[in-house]
Specification:
The structure holds 2 protein chains of 2 kinds. Helices cover 30% and strands 25% of the residues of chain A. Chain A is an alpha+beta fold. Chain A has a 5-stranded antiparallel beta sheet. In chain A, a hairpin with a 2-residue loop joins β16 and β17. The radius of gyration of chain A is 29 Å and the shape is elongated. Chain A starts with 19 loop residues before the first helix and ends with a helix. In chain A, 36% of the residues are buried. Chain B is built from 25 helices and 19 strands. Chain B starts with a helix and ends with a helix. At the A-B interface, α2, α3 and β7 of A face α6, α7, α8, α9 and α21 of B.
């Protein structure tokens, strides 16, 4: 992969001016480690009363005043019972997060502008956990969506968020927050987690896709036909990673029990080179969009296509792996 | 299966298959209904009806999944409720009006249960509503009923914070109960140590409307008391016990009469000329202990007569108790908490000035223009030759004789009397109860120029003590009279005994009509009913003694046991803060320990690794016991065979299932390691 030639994503969201509060927040976020597995303990769980918690406290104060003024011993008892339960709920809320393990599954690449699915697996070692909410730390930038889930005792639950990368290239997964107000909603416990994973966004394919350029002449010196010698018969060879489902010779598979693919020599003459120069006229992003659209189109039509970018060359081939390689190249070019 | 059973089954199935929102709303409504229910007994009828209709309507909306009514309708209902409150309570402020509005608000708010925030508002209002019940009753039954209400409210609160799926109600209820139970120690500490300070501001007028003796007497005022079965105080005698007929608990002494109302005397004479107490005691004292319910009156109804000397006077921490010249015990502020006092009384006593003092003129004063016919009647009596020269006791006997023979009837429902109430009672209708007889007696005595006054208080007690405690109820409230005799002082006389000796001797006023259940018990087995009642009252007494009676006095006793010489509420605060700080420190300690706590398996792995390292076998933290066993074999050879076997046993126990005690394994392993070393 051409990843090495590309600039690594910024380690932290750059503090773009902003108020002192924002800068402080950015600085504080940058101190958190980048990790895909986040173990919750006392060091990384924060807890504060919610608005409802303050309202509850105000209710208790009013009740205490009434109990004092009317000298109601049961009024005292009730007030203190609720105060005790409220205080215990602080521990329960904290305990609802403590000991959880969060893990972000690898994120599949998407086209820029499409939502990428962040799949967070929450593992609870003991005890049922209720009312866990997953959201982005910076809600203004990434949306206010909440994903709720309950984690069973000794089991796992997954919560999904979608992240829409605006441009092609690597995107750091923004900081995530897992929070809970269970059981009484008087306290909110939360943790801030910066996953190390990144999302790759391919260039957004041009819509509608422009017609493919004319196929180049067979036998070009750049051509590198992927052909296995010896083992094939009747244009059939053992299945290789990257062969699409359409290439599999299902009848033969049914007969022999081995997974075999059709040899693609028939298409080799219609081998196609997608060239950076073909998309002339448009700016860089538009050219990349057009090339991405062509890669998809060629794949759909069963053509083996190669990709020629300034400084990069991808030999013609077919199959999912090839398509991904081509799109990755386009996503990360320069 | 019968049709009823199958329909019940259908209902049950329907309930268990309700959508979550509907089920939660119904639960919510049920909890609110349960919380409101005890108030229906004393709130205006329209308020209870409106609350129930609103709740039922909301339940119907939930079941049919219909849309909630618009905001304008809710506002209109609120305005209507406010208008009705104003109409029935004459105010929007004050206790009754406040509770009425609170109940209506709660039921109205259920029509706006849209977001989580609305639910929280209702629940927090609910907690406050629970508290308002204690203004009316703090009995054990009320406490239990409201404990369930609090549990329900907390469960609803938990449900509101379980957004995923359809959690079972019992699960939420369990979480709520667990939080409450875990909070009990904190509750107990706060309850015991939170300083009981007096009311922060003057109680609103309506708070004083509780039943009990009042400081004045107006015709009909005692009738309502006589029907009240609630407990005024409990008494325990440490030595000799007097008969209930001898128990006169002295309350306000009323000497001033304006024609309608008897009040305390505000004498215009200088202090030196007023009658003084001049108490003279004879015989042995009766020592007793009393637990007084909060009467909201600044007085103690102590046994006649409890003198003001060091050995027998009652004393309560934080209260100033004084004996008035008219023999009544005064407190510096209204009794707003349950009070426990110890004192001694002498049944055989004399009090009042022996010689005439000018101040006694106040006690023969009668308002001009009232009761002319009784004055006429008294003058005629006095004019009879037999009484022309009679002394005060003879006149008193004459009056008692008249009451006994004159066709008077004792009744709790004498009906309305007009302006000249005593005239009407004494000469026409002759129906009345203690206060009628006492006041008429006093007016007649005064008309014959004998100083006399009305004494109110309690007379008697329940016929049988429970756990050694005699119970005096509000229905024992009584009024009697005192007249002055030269050379003797004040003489007590109970005119009611002349017409209804039972009232005094058996100490039973008219029994209130029994309730339905009590009536049923009575017809089946009166003895059983009595036993049940006694058992219940004894439980209730414990509840009163230990929970409701807990006040500043008990707090200071506790502090004294903790070693404080002269406890004050600041000491209480200090102890409270100390306990809370130590609890917080303990919590911090636990957090520190919890942070270092490791999974037992991982800790064992680490210890095994250290032990092997000491033997020269290097293993990595992530190596399974099986791998470690191989390393041991390759490094130590035959010498490590036992060790390797032990590690393999651990591996099998861990990964092939089966119980394993890490502790006992570790001991075996250590022994094997010593053998290998």
């Amino acid at each position: 992969m051409a990843e090495a030639t590309l600039p690594a994503p910024a380690p932290a969201p750059a503090p773009r001016g902003g108020s002192a509060r924002q800068r402080l927040r950015a600085w504080w976020l940058s101190r958190l480690p980048l990790t895909d597995t986040w173990q919750l303990g006392q060091r990384n769980i924060y807890i504060l009363p919610t608005k409802a918690g303050y309202a509850f406290a105000a209710t208790l104060v009013v009740m205490l005043l009434a109990a004092i003024n009317y000298q109601l011993n049961l009024g005292y008892a009730l007030t203190f019972l609720l105060a005790g339960a409220g205080l215990v709920s602080m521990h329960l809320t904290h305990g609802n997060l403590r000991g959880l393990t969060l893990h972000l599954r690898p994120v599949a690449p998407v086209f820029a502008g499409d939502p990428a699915l962040l799949d967070v697996v929450i593992t609870s070692p003991a005890r049922d956990r209720h009312g866990l909410a997953l959201r982005f730390e910076n809600r203004a930038a990434h949306g206010r969506a909440f994903a709720w889930c309950d984690a069973p005792a000794g089991g796992q639950a997954s919560a999904h968020l979608s992240l829409v990368p605006p441009r092609r290239g690597w995107h750091a997964v923004p900081a995530l927050v897992v929070e809970t107000v269970f059981p009484f909603g008087l306290f909110r416990a939360w943790t801030v987690w910066r996953p190390a994973a990144r999302v790759l966004a391919w260039p957004r394919p041009e819509q509608p896709p422009p017609p493919l350029p004319a196929a180049a002449a067979a036998g070009s010196e750049e051509r590198a036909v992927q052909r296995s010698a010896g083992s094939e018969l009747d244009g059939v060879r053992p299945w290789r990673r990257g062969d699409s489902m359409r290439q599999v010779a299902w009848k033969k598979v049914a007969r022999s029990g081995e997974l075999v693919s059709r040899e693609t020599t028939g298409n080799a003459s219609r081998e196609l080179w997608l060239d950076w120069a073909d998309g002339h006229g448009a700016d860089i992003e538009q050219r990349l969009s057009r090339l991405a659209a062509w890669v998809l189109l060629a794949e759909r039509e069963g053509l083996a296509c190669g990709l020629r970018l300034p400084g990069h060359l991808l030999p013609p081939d077919q199959g999912d792996a090839h398509r991904r390689a081509a799109l990755d190249l386009l996503a990360l070019w320069r | 299966m019968t049709a009823a059973a199958s329909s019940a089954l259908n209902l049950r199935q329907r309930l268990t298959h309700l959508p979550r929102d509907t089920r939660d709303t119904l639960f919510h409504l049920a909890v609110i209904g349960w919380t409101i229910a005890p108030h229906l007994l004393h709130l205006p009828l329209w308020c209870g009806a409106m609350a129930l209709v609103l709740l039922a309507w909301r339940a119907r909306l939930a079941l049919t999944a219909a849309a909630l009514p618009g905001r304008w309708l809710v506002t209109a209902l609120l305005v209507l409720a406010a208008a009705l409150t104003l109409w029935s309570e004459r105010t929007l402020l004050g206790k009754e009006a406040g509770i009425t509005m609170l109940v209506v608000l709660m039921s109205l708010k259920t029509l706006e249960l849209r977001a989580r925030r609305d639910a929280l508002v209702v629940l927090f209002l609910g907690f406050f509503l629970v508290l308002t019940h204690f203004l009316y009753s703090q009995s054990l039954g009320t406490g239990l009923w409201l404990l369930v209400a609090v549990w329900g409210l907390l469960t609803a609160l938990v449900l509101a914070h379980m957004p995923v799926g359809r959690p079972p109600l019992m699960r939420a209820g369990w979480v709520a109960a667990r939080a409450a139970v875990l909070g009990l120690p904190l509750m107990a500490v706060l309850f015991v140590l939170f300083p009981r300070i007096g009311p922060l501001w003057g109680l609103p007028q309506d708070a004083a409307g509780r039943t009990g003796l009042s400081g004045s007497l107006r015709m009909g005022g005692v009738a309502t008391l006589a029907e009240d079965d609630s407990i005024a105080f409990r008494v325990r005698f440490t030595g000799a016990t007097p008969a209930p007929a001898q128990m006169y608990w002295r309350g306000p002494v009323l000497s001033s009469f304006d024609g309608r109302e008897w009040t305390r005397l505000a004498s215009t004479f200088p202090v030196a000329l007023r009658p003084r107490l001049e108490l003279e005691l004879r015989g042995a004292p009766l020592r007793y202990e009393m637990t007084l319910e909060p009467s909201r009156l600044p007085l103690l109804p102590l046994l006649e007569m409890t003198p003001d000397d060091d050995a027998s006077a009652p004393r309560v921490e934080g209260w100033l108790l004084t004996l008035r010249p008219d023999g009544q015990w005064q407190v510096d502020r209204p009794l707003s908490e349950r009070l426990r006092v110890q004192a001694a009384a002498w049944l055989d006593h004399r009090h009042g000035p022996r010689e005439p003092v000018l101040g006694l003129r106040d006690l023969v004063a009668l308002p001009a223009g009232y009761n002319p016919r009784l004055l006429q009647w008294a003058a005629e009596l006095r004019a009879q030759p037999a009484y022309a020269q009679a002394d005060a006791p003879a006149l008193a006997q004459a009056l008692l004789h008249h009451i006994g023979r004159g066709g008077y009837t004792y009744t709790l429902e004498p009906g309305e009397y007009g302006r000249d109430a005593i005239d009407e009672f004494w000469l026409d209708r002759k129906l009345g109860f203690c206060e009628h007889y006492a006041t008429a007696f006093v007016v007649a005595m005064r008309a014959m120029d004998v100083p006399a006054r009305v004494v109110t208080g309690y007379q008697g007690a329940d016929p049988e003590p429970q756990d050694g405690w005699w119970i005096v109820r509000q229905r024992h409230a009584h009024a009697w009279a005192e007249y002055w005799v030269a050379g003797t002082g004040w003489v007590r006389i109970d005119p009611t005994s002349a017409v209804a000796p039972d009232r005094v001797q058996r100490s039973l006023s008219l029994r209130p009509p029994p309730g339905l259940v009590a009536g049923a018990f009575d017809t089946i087995d009166p003895a059983l009913a009595l036993r049940l009642r006694n058992a219940w009252e004894s439980v209730n007494n414990r509840w009163n003694q230990w929970v409701l009676n807990y006040s500043r006095g008990q707090q200071f006793d506790l502090l004294r046991e903790l070693g404080f010489e002269a406890p004050s509420w600041q000491d209480l605060a200090t102890v409270l803060i100390g306990v809370l700080c130590s609890a917080a420190l303990a919590g911090a300690g636990w957090a520190w320990w919890d942070r270092r706590r490791q999974d037992p398996w991982q800790r064992l792995q680490r210890r095994v690794q250290q032990r092997l390292a000491a033997l020269g076998v290097t293993v990595l933290p992530h190596h399974a016991p099986r791998t470690r066993a191989q390393r041991v074999r390759t490094t130590l050879g035959a010498r490590g065979e036992a060790l390797a076997g032990s590690l393999e046993a651990l591996d099998r126990a861990r990964y092939a299932g089966g119980p394993v005690s890490l502790h006992s394994w570790w001991r075996q392993f250590r022994a094997a390691a010593r053998g290998a070393g």
